[in-house]
Design goal:
66 residues, alpha+beta, Dodecin subunit-like, 1 helix, 61% strand
Length: 66
């Protein structure tokens, strides 16, 4: 039976939510192996001068422990 661990990662992007999620996974994969899934816990947008300037998300990343 594999053991699965979950970490929480905060990421942001000026392009969009999808890019923020991609960056969260890319950054985590630099030091974590066997990533299986990502759960987006929260989404937000930063507003500047009446326009959305950047997007942010809090992700829970699951991975199998060797």
């Amino acid at each position: 039976m594999p053991i699965v661990k979950v970490i929480e990662v905060i990421a942001s992007s000026e392009k969009g939510i999808d890019d923020a999620i991609q960056q969260a996974v890319a950054e985590a994969s630099k030091t974590v192996r066997n990533i299986d899934s990502v759960y987006v816990k929260d989404i937000k947008a930063h507003v500047k001068d009446g326009r959305v300037a950047s997007y942010g998300c809090i992700c829970k990343i699951s991975f199998r422990v060797d």
